[in-house]
Batch of 2 targets.
Target 1
Amino acid sequence: MLTARELLDPLLGIVGIVLGAVVLRWLVHRLIARLTDGLAAGRVSSLLRPHRSGSPGTAERRAQRARTVGSLLRSVASFVIFGVAFVLVLSKLGINIAPIIASAGVVGVAVGFGAQNLIKDFLSGIFMMLEDQYGVGDVVDLGDATGTVEMVGLRITTVRDVNGTVWYVRNGTITAVGNSTQRFGVAVVDVPVGYSADVDQAIGIAGEAARQAVTRKPLADEVLGDVETLGAQDLTQAAITLRLTVKTKPGRQWAVRRALTADVKMALDTAGITAAA
Amino acid sequence: MLTARELLDPLLGIVGIVLGAVVLRWLVHRLIARLTDGLAAGRVSSLLRPHRSGSPGTAERRAQRARTVGSLLRSVASFVIFGVAFVLVLSKLGINIAPIIASAGVVGVAVGFGAQNLIKDFLSGIFMMLEDQYGVGDVVDLGDATGTVEMVGLRITTVRDVNGTVWYVRNGTITAVGNSTQRFGVAVVDVPVGYSADVDQAIGIAGEAARQAVTRKPLADEVLGDVETLGAQDLTQAAITLRLTVKTKPGRQWAVRRALTADVKMALDTAGITAAA
Amino acid sequence: MLTARELLDPLLGIVGIVLGAVVLRWLVHRLIARLTDGLAAGRVSSLLRPHRSGSPGTAERRAQRARTVGSLLRSVASFVIFGVAFVLVLSKLGINIAPIIASAGVVGVAVGFGAQNLIKDFLSGIFMMLEDQYGVGDVVDLGDATGTVEMVGLRITTVRDVNGTVWYVRNGTITAVGNSTQRFGVAVVDVPVGYSADVDQAIGIAGEAARQAVTRKPLADEVLGDVETLGAQDLTQAAITLRLTVKTKPGRQWAVRRALTADVKMALDTAGITAAA
Amino acid sequence: MLTARELLDPLLGIVGIVLGAVVLRWLVHRLIARLTDGLAAGRVSSLLRPHRSGSPGTAERRAQRARTVGSLLRSVASFVIFGVAFVLVLSKLGINIAPIIASAGVVGVAVGFGAQNLIKDFLSGIFMMLEDQYGVGDVVDLGDATGTVEMVGLRITTVRDVNGTVWYVRNGTITAVGNSTQRFGVAVVDVPVGYSADVDQAIGIAGEAARQAVTRKPLADEVLGDVETLGAQDLTQAAITLRLTVKTKPGRQWAVRRALTADVKMALDTAGITAAA
Amino acid sequence: MLTARELLDPLLGIVGIVLGAVVLRWLVHRLIARLTDGLAAGRVSSLLRPHRSGSPGTAERRAQRARTVGSLLRSVASFVIFGVAFVLVLSKLGINIAPIIASAGVVGVAVGFGAQNLIKDFLSGIFMMLEDQYGVGDVVDLGDATGTVEMVGLRITTVRDVNGTVWYVRNGTITAVGNSTQRFGVAVVDVPVGYSADVDQAIGIAGEAARQAVTRKPLADEVLGDVETLGAQDLTQAAITLRLTVKTKPGRQWAVRRALTADVKMALDTAGITAAA
Amino acid sequence: MLTARELLDPLLGIVGIVLGAVVLRWLVHRLIARLTDGLAAGRVSSLLRPHRSGSPGTAERRAQRARTVGSLLRSVASFVIFGVAFVLVLSKLGINIAPIIASAGVVGVAVGFGAQNLIKDFLSGIFMMLEDQYGVGDVVDLGDATGTVEMVGLRITTVRDVNGTVWYVRNGTITAVGNSTQRFGVAVVDVPVGYSADVDQAIGIAGEAARQAVTRKPLADEVLGDVETLGAQDLTQAAITLRLTVKTKPGRQWAVRRALTADVKMALDTAGITAAA
Amino acid sequence: MLTARELLDPLLGIVGIVLGAVVLRWLVHRLIARLTDGLAAGRVSSLLRPHRSGSPGTAERRAQRARTVGSLLRSVASFVIFGVAFVLVLSKLGINIAPIIASAGVVGVAVGFGAQNLIKDFLSGIFMMLEDQYGVGDVVDLGDATGTVEMVGLRITTVRDVNGTVWYVRNGTITAVGNSTQRFGVAVVDVPVGYSADVDQAIGIAGEAARQAVTRKPLADEVLGDVETLGAQDLTQAAITLRLTVKTKPGRQWAVRRALTADVKMALDTAGITAAA
């Protein structure tokens, strides 16, 4: 016969465990909320702030991302806390919990091997968001795909490339992100002239043509600085490659490069400097 | 001699374990059903919704995928719950379960190493389905194979390429998915002209030819926007590459590109602008 | 002096363990038989059925494969069950089984590292069989080798390539299988013409030549559809590449491609359209 | 003072453990002998028989390989059984075996990481032998090295390449084995002719030349079938590549290819069909 | 009924644990502070000082980095110490902590697999900072990206490349850092001349031209040493490549190279030595 | 108060443990000595003898290598045995050894991850030595480096390449060893002739020239067999590549190849067969 | 109430543990000192001595390196010994150390995954130092970077390449080290001559020119042996590549190669042997 205490003790224990779990979960959720509120308000720890974030409209983006990250963290925390509490309750009921723990361990390890890509994807996604590496509309190079960001998710980022193809890139496979639309771009104009050309004269003509072009519309609205004539970037038996650069508004470097390439080429044609060796 | 209690206690315990397992399994299946019903109804958590899904016919696809994912999750849950219950019953029968747990651990680890590819494949498949990255009939680039999707499975995706070869691609080996049939495509037309050509004139003729072409049938039914003449994309000693782009209906970008390439080339021929340097 | 009970108890326990193991093994084998019978009858779970299998002669193939997979699973199950029972018997005999379990663990982990390739190969082989990705006589691209399948094994697949070399490919190293003999093939004919050619005229002549060719024997018996003239696939300073495609019987796409290439080339010759730029 | 029983009990236990280990080892060795006898007699399980082995002289080879594999398995089994027995004896002597097991575990894991290549090599070697993928004298492509097999070992395979260099290839690094000397080879003859040539005429002449060549000595002794004229394998702006194939005795495909290449080339010369575009 | 001692003992234990944890944390934080103070003062252990750091302005940089590293270490230490103390308190309250430890282990392993990239990133970042491999404004080659460092973080480094693209590079993916702005650079000038040129004469003219160029403004302000004429670096059938080098101020090697290339080329032109073979 | 037995028992136990450890170490060292003596005498197990070792001077090499391997194995065995004995002694002294074992485990795993390369290097080195893959003075291709072996070590092999650079190659990174100085080499002479040449005549002249060259000094002392004229190895639109081979003394294949290339080329010149297409 | 013994026993135990730890640490430090003294004196075990070290100035280098390695080993040993002692003291104080050990294990494994690169770097660095693979001033090829060694560290090696860029290379990423400044270098001079040249005559002239050049200053001071004329290294349709080699002082092979290339080329010019085919 079970005594009253034998019946009561586990019951009290179970109630205590459940209460404790609920309280702990509430505390952890509070902690997460505090953390994400800080994120939303831009108070990221200096450990994670690689870049001065100052562009307008990022406040809302930051708030939305803080919500997303907080939601994921809360789910994981609840799952772990209630799972442990459930096993503790079973143990109070006199169930031998060794096989449960062991099977959890086996499943954990087995899945851990297979799911590491998943965890990598989510962890990378969380940090990309915290560090605000890119947002919707940015032109980025993610290694596997280059194009305009369509959506930033915790597991994958969606990018539409120049052919209109939509790429779903797993965040964990991205080793380096190249963002071409931050504060300014640089249009690098490489123009080949024949080996026999007079280098100084060619550089002068090319620089002059580029300088005039960037003072005229529409380029004048796109560039942010003066044209720099770097000079003879490359010299082979067949050609001299002249290089000019100019700072542009973010995302406009490609259009400026194409326009300047044409202008410089035509100025060289006019001056009789051709590509023939 | 075993006392009645010695006989009864394990029996009661076993009955309790079996009952508990059945109840737990029912609860977990309910949970999974709720989850997959949400999926079927399009109520995916924002954590996993990288893209606005709005194309018609996806409702049915979503429902079918939810059933597939739910079926897999139910099988795994049943297997784990009954496995643990079986070991608990053995323990109640007085069997030393340490070697059973240990052997389960050894088999788990040993298989975990070898089966991680399998788990990766299934996990990738589940997330691809939840995120609705592609469906049957889409033209996708999966890295190992490019072509039209024939079948979307949990472990592998089947794609038929341009030569009619059917590719079985393991979902876990796909790092980035390129889907060329989402909302629109872009036909990128690159036409080389000789270095000595007048760039502005060539761009003008090429743009005009393309603009006229997209107003005529059959191209008029395929394009979604105006032709953009980007200009001199590339400049070498031998050639200037002109680039034009135009938005098209999804999947039609290649046909439009081929047609525009021919039209622009013939317009340049007519104007006496040739590819000869 | 050992009492009778001290002698009897372990004996009874051992008998019970052995009986239990035999019964459990019988049950597991029944389960496996049921599973493989389902496979043999084509009742694979929808989770693993990536493709509509409808070609004749696959019934027998499926049955044979179900037997192979079942045989492997039965061996593994027997080995694990009797191994655990053996250790349990030792424990009943009063042997300290901790070092046995530990050494099993160490050997398991040590071999697990080295044997993961082996397990990967078998798991890949099992799934390839269940999914019926290819059979003997199919022309496949396995990455490491391309050719005609000679034998499908659980660990390796044997393929004979175009030079008659027999390739033994480990199933676990195959990331994507390209099967060129499923339902139909596509002959892709790429013919270069000089840059100065009239594109529309050349496409017309090429298409006409191909269309006539596929109505004549022997090609008429090999193709399954009409010739599609895609147009100018590629345009360089030197050449225009015309592309035509036609559906063919599975495995005949290469012969059709060669024949059509010759026919189209000769038709272009006749029309005076040459490859000279 | 230790009682007699305190002295006797461990002694009896030790004797029992040693006896049991010897008996178990004898049983395991019997099992291995049975297995390898089956291998030697060619009764490999269908799970591991990827290829019909029917060439003469393989019986002896199989027997020798069975002995090699058996010897390795026996050594490993003895080592494990006596190792565990030794630890059990220590435990009977009252030694705390926890640190021994733990250190075995640590060494096992530490070495397991480093030795996985070793285990992979041996496991690959065992399976290569069981599957009879190649033997001494075969011409194989092992990825890292291509040439004639000089020696087949459990850990490494030795191959001598065309320059006389001897390659020691670790079996575990071989992902796919290409064996060029199994039953037959195929000589693939690719002959380029100028773009302006008449394709049908060139194919006819090339095929006729090859057919005559294979009826004359010495080629007549080397080929196993008729010449197949596949036709125009490749078409560029500069050349048409004609392809002919013929089955040859194993290992003779390269000599046949060289001879036929010369014969076909000279026949085309005679007919005035040259490589000039 | 619980006795007073039953109630008091855990209470005392809990108080002791909390006090101990606070003290331990204070000690560890002191230790970290001492370590980072040493770092800030430049007293790094010789184990981690691969390079003589002597450039001005590094003192402040070092101090700031020491604060960053110390902040991270303090957070991790607090988290671990309070986590363990929390579990010890639970244990004092009579809770079975086995499942908690086990679940911590499972989560630890599962995350350990997925989070290893994260830990690698932070560890690499800490050591990069301690070793002072680069700072803001340096021109570095990180493998994935080359350009000017914009920000040095613990997890990622931000670099802006020549096109103005900002690259976020994970510190853990960097295997070798190339810093082009340390103490000096070397401008390597490779000039091709035709094969028929007189090597000694060409070397003489090229060296003379370079030597005169570096004595004139603006190059005179940029170079740090004499021009070295290495001679015929490369000889092919078409060209001889002459090489000259000169030490420059850090970061100016590219401008010097471009200027010298143009000067040397024009001097060779004047002397009638051309690139024509 | 401790009783005499309480004092004596641990003391006796400690003495026993130390004695046992010394005896065990002596036994293990004996075993290793027996093994390495067998190695020194050339009695390697057939499992590890991939090649007939018969060259003179290998006896001494084998003996020296056996000593090296034995020395390493003895150090490892002593370290493990005394380490375990030390922990057993601590346990007899009443110290709680759980944290010691645990910390050993943690250090073991942590180092195991990082040290696996080290263990791989040593294991590869041991097996390379046992299998006698190469010795000092051999010309080998180790993948990372090709040249003459200067030193064979357990962890690294030192090779001097053609430029005099000394390469330190970690044994564990070597997947395949190519040894060019075993018993014989093969000089492969590839000579291109123009497409228009008469193949049979060219082969005849080339073979005759090579045959005469190998009968004259100095080549006569270097070759080991007759010249084999393989024929037209390769046929392109521009050239026919003729191939001849001849067996040479080990390490002389390159000198013979260079000499024969010159001789054959000059004979073809004399016969008016040129490389011009 | 705690008895005196209850109070005293732990106290005595704690004192004993601390004393034992200090003694053990002293012993281990002595052992390390002995080891590193041996290293400093050049008494490295033959297991780790891949190369005869005999160059002057290495004694001091060896001593300094021994100190560096010893310092690292001492730090690690102290950390482990005091860590274990601390946990033992806690255990004597009645603290449940299971969670501490478990958390240490979890942190150890989690960090072990992430820190393996770190441990690899340090282990590689230690062995590179012990084996004396290179020193400051040597010209080395480390795979990721080639240049002059600036600093040899335990974790990274610093190399300055030809452009003056300083490379920080992690020691663990180096698979093979090529040291070009050990005892001697070899200048390999490859000179192309046209196909129509007389091979023997060209070899004669080239060899003669090189032989004269190395007898004159400045080359006479740089070479260590005679010029070897290897002959026709390579033969294509367009060119014959002649090869000559000569041993030089370490690090001078590149200057000698450049000088000899120019001399041989001019001698061939004088003799009328040109590169024109």
Target 2
Amino acid sequence: MNFASDNIVGASRPVLDALIAANGGAEPAYGADGPTRAVERRLAEIFERDCAVFLVATGTGANALALSALVPPYGCAVCHREAHVIDDECGAPEFFTGGAKLAGLPGVGAKLAPRTLAEWLASLSPSVKQMPPRALSISQATECGLVYTPGEVAALAEIAHGAGLKVHMDGARFANALVSLGVSPAEITWKAGVDVLTFGATKNGCLAAEALIVFDPALAEAMPWLRKRSGHTLSKGRLLGAQLQGYLANDHWLDNARHANAMAARLAEGVTALPGARLAFERQANELLPVLPRETAERLRAAGAMFHPWSEASLPEGERVAPHETLVRLVTSFATTEGEIDAFLAAARG
Amino acid sequence: MNFASDNIVGASRPVLDALIAANGGAEPAYGADGPTRAVERRLAEIFERDCAVFLVATGTGANALALSALVPPYGCAVCHREAHVIDDECGAPEFFTGGAKLAGLPGVGAKLAPRTLAEWLASLSPSVKQMPPRALSISQATECGLVYTPGEVAALAEIAHGAGLKVHMDGARFANALVSLGVSPAEITWKAGVDVLTFGATKNGCLAAEALIVFDPALAEAMPWLRKRSGHTLSKGRLLGAQLQGYLANDHWLDNARHANAMAARLAEGVTALPGARLAFERQANELLPVLPRETAERLRAAGAMFHPWSEASLPEGERVAPHETLVRLVTSFATTEGEIDAFLAAARG
Amino acid sequence: MNFASDNIVGASRPVLDALIAANGGAEPAYGADGPTRAVERRLAEIFERDCAVFLVATGTGANALALSALVPPYGCAVCHREAHVIDDECGAPEFFTGGAKLAGLPGVGAKLAPRTLAEWLASLSPSVKQMPPRALSISQATECGLVYTPGEVAALAEIAHGAGLKVHMDGARFANALVSLGVSPAEITWKAGVDVLTFGATKNGCLAAEALIVFDPALAEAMPWLRKRSGHTLSKGRLLGAQLQGYLANDHWLDNARHANAMAARLAEGVTALPGARLAFERQANELLPVLPRETAERLRAAGAMFHPWSEASLPEGERVAPHETLVRLVTSFATTEGEIDAFLAAARG
Amino acid sequence: MNFASDNIVGASRPVLDALIAANGGAEPAYGADGPTRAVERRLAEIFERDCAVFLVATGTGANALALSALVPPYGCAVCHREAHVIDDECGAPEFFTGGAKLAGLPGVGAKLAPRTLAEWLASLSPSVKQMPPRALSISQATECGLVYTPGEVAALAEIAHGAGLKVHMDGARFANALVSLGVSPAEITWKAGVDVLTFGATKNGCLAAEALIVFDPALAEAMPWLRKRSGHTLSKGRLLGAQLQGYLANDHWLDNARHANAMAARLAEGVTALPGARLAFERQANELLPVLPRETAERLRAAGAMFHPWSEASLPEGERVAPHETLVRLVTSFATTEGEIDAFLAAARG
């Protein structure tokens, strides 16, 4: 009954099998290996266009490299104030950019509204005292489990581009968002104005593999050096390439995401039926943020269930967590079973 | 016949098996997993003392993190002028330290002599114009395949410590050096004055795993944050922990290194028997740097053999590569077979 | 009628005279000159203790150097969200620290309340994902012209020190605050818990001179190199030393501040007598932030008066600027004359 | 008898007068003041073209800002191995660029030969392991007092531009070189291929004033922010503007340089007539590097003469400093008098 996050399990079987299969024989080092080359081609197909692909082992590495390609050391990137890049990466974007600032804006469910972005941009002074905004970063799905539709991404991107900002999408849970939306990878990214994507795979079936996808080749020019000097160019690149081969083959990645989302739906249904429980936000991907009676939460923990309390900073207007209640986050993954969910719900009911 | 490097093969079987074995079940994220904890304990046993251990996926990451813990942004680290940290990491140490300088000194076989270090330290001005030296970094084995004895390390470390410098050992080929020397891990590191070790494992049997070992806990205080903000804290830490479990169990790492070294010895014997060929440096670990007739090198390449030409900057006094000759580097690994060596030698003979 | 800021005039006469007097003859370079040495001794007297003094030409340089001595690249500094260091220095603290973050907290009149600081510290997660707080920076006087009393500084410093943070005071308008409070320099700084002070002099009579004063010598160890590598070690150090000699001699600096504050008091009295005008905050030093009828502000601008509109983000509870009103900032200096004030008030009355 | 450097005196009279004249009245802050604007126009006239001008107080600041506009954090700048930027600025270029590397090449008299540059460029590997070269920095005059002719600059710049490098000239002693060469400012800079110039004025008559001149406007786009975040944008910009107004008016700067060079010529004549003394390099600007009998040098120091010993690393082929000799550097300035020189020579003769 571990719903703490979707990074607590290992690799899914096809990913592990691909890793085993790619282990033998000699391959060129530093990302020139066959599996990595194959993944680059496969991602170009999946995204329906040429793109520059850089495989790395962590989402923090991918996000920070992305922002360092978009934002100069004297610039700033704007994101939601609960975004992973501003809150959970111990200053990786500041480090990789050489000192740029992240500006955090409010928004329900960790989701940025176009109007919020536009008003913030309008409020900035052109003075040299201020760090000029150069990138917008949005999380897909958000840290509260909500998804941006292609229209919402496009509205944000239009405002951003109009003010000279590039658009980064932190897709740590990209697959979960994608299958929730039922759109194509192209529609939710470059066709909607995304310039650089962190294509997450670790949480959805890999052990450690993310693809930094740069849709505008001009933005990728410095990336080989940026990645190398950050220590994120793996010596035996096949480790990354092979995982992603297994991940992308036969729509395995989409199957994993569909499973995780379905488990989240099942969990949501059960949780909302608990006495005194409700969801703070609609369940859209593989995360749900229920408000539980404290008593229920304690009963669950006593039974061995694992999950994190969550910040109340981005609740919808009117929603309030009472003193006898607690806001928590439950995350499902490709490996979550119906049995785990049923056990969790049984424990909740006591 | 690929002798280009020891990073062109995958994982050795016990390492891969350990990875497969550790794949199932839930584990805490970010390095709090069971396999990582077990490896930390195992390394403390192997090095016969408590030490702080930080697993990362690349040698560049480990080296740069190590130097960033030892050298302030306004300081400098001294190393051989062909050291990997100064020559092959695209400025990772400069990046991670926030702008420190690397000073490269000469030395036969990419090996630093105590006298060279002492004279350089004595030549420095105390002026604030100069970046003060704060760390010495040595490679074990060196980039030309030579090993430092415990006495040699101790002599360098004594000079370094006397001048206020900490000592880092880049052990990308630590196991190969160790079995070549026939000493204990403790004897060649902290007992000889090494403060921080990059314990390489990727080249000797893992896919991507290095252990940054800090012998003085005070030097490790900032490391959890330094690693996190560099994106080198893996979400599913078991990937690193499991590889190293397999690597360290049953002296597998030492067996791998012994095999690689034995293959290098066999190759050295055969190469020196080739007409017009000689070794530029004694073969001590798993690398050899022969001077070959250009004709021989061309014949080898034509037969499909892979290897790199090498810099002549650190040749022994008196050694000179004639116009009809070429200096190359041949590297063996745990996976090198006698058959490959025999085929290489046969091709060399034409 | 220029009340835009206190940096729009040149040097006061005694400062200029000292500069002229120190111009002749040879002096050692890089801060080893006689005037600089004399200033170091004088400041130790003024602050009643040994301290390390580093003269620089800009407040941004002094503040950023101060923070870089206190905060590691993976740490954060906390300040008011309208503090000069977070809002007006184009990322200088981020640059000098190598990527640290500034956290901005709310507070009426750009002044931090102890409770706000304590609650923020308590809210932080100990996770390695978060950048640990290492310094508190407060502005004396604040960006809205308010001063911290010794008791208020001590209350903040006690909380900060208790959580492992060092305390920086940005004293761009230190002299104005000092004479407003009627306390000694020691009482409002190190005796109240300040570890590092930016002793501003540019705004109060110099052309370009600030003293970075480090009360705890251990914190100053790296400063000579930090200053040198930032280009803030002047070749002809007498330029800074001489200005400060003139500034500090015969309590000239206090006289200048008293004059500026008196002019601000006179201006405040006149402004509050204007129809429809009121002060958003008490006038305590040499800045006042009146809410003016827009009509009045326009009349003033038309008459050639210069001043800046100001942010409404830190107004006292209950204070609101109506649509027909505007919040502006008026700053007086050592050079402000009664005539200017009378002319301004006359113009305001129309 | 102080020949230690040309930064040991204050400002020349016309510079000081200009500073005094500009002290009164209100001026906009941060470089928008009248004197600064006037200097920008004057420099455009002097250099016979539009250019972007940024005034700063130190040469280290100007050089580091220049390099940070030309070299990305993963790149490198090449210069002579005794260049001020690599040897005397405590890592300012590394700091401002965010971690770029400086590569130091050999050359007689601290002067780079085109062939040396070309061979170095040809030796570089295109591998991502190497930091790509992006700028050439040359000192005019060099650290050994030699000047580059327009033809020599053009030859270097052609090679640099051909390899994608921009060209920076560190003109700490630009005026001395200029009058030595008898060419126009345009001829020795942008017409010969210089992209960015540090136009030094501090050593030749100012107290603290350098102009960073960017001939290609595209390279200057980020400079306002780069300067601001480095703390080098002076609040009361007139301090810099006024000095340079006085410096540039009526060819005062050229007169100062001619005087310094003439004094150096007189000193050179006298020194070479001393028994056992000779110049290591031709005297071309305001520095001479004589080899003196140790006895002579000691006699001079005993008599109170001040000068620095100098590195023997860039001596001409065949030149050797014997054990009973010493290589020293003597620098003259606008303020050097014939009397000082005669006293120095008399003391040398004993």
